[in-house]
Design a protein that fits this description.
The protein has about 80 residues and is α+β, with helices and mostly antiparallel strands. The chain has helices spanning about 55-60, 65-80, and strands at about 10-15, 20-25, 35, 40-50. It is about 20% helix and about 30% strand. The relative contact order is 0.18. Part of the 50S ribosomal subunit.
Length: about 80
Amino acid sequence: MKPGIHPEYREVVFQDIGADFSFLTRSTIAAKETIKWTDGKEYPLVKIEVSSQSHPFYTGKQKILDTAGRVEKFRQKYGM
């Protein structure tokens, strides 16, 4: 590998601001803020709006649309 062209791969804390949930993982993303983690070390912090703790698919609060009913209404309305 060529030296100096690859991004730094390091441990980063991602914080879901909607669900008050944080997790530590590795990433190459640039971060301006830092946070002290539970192990006492300081890590770069990236704030995100959606994670598995707040996304409706993972939380079970997903709305299921009745697409078949909508198609039938459309066909009845326009005589198809």
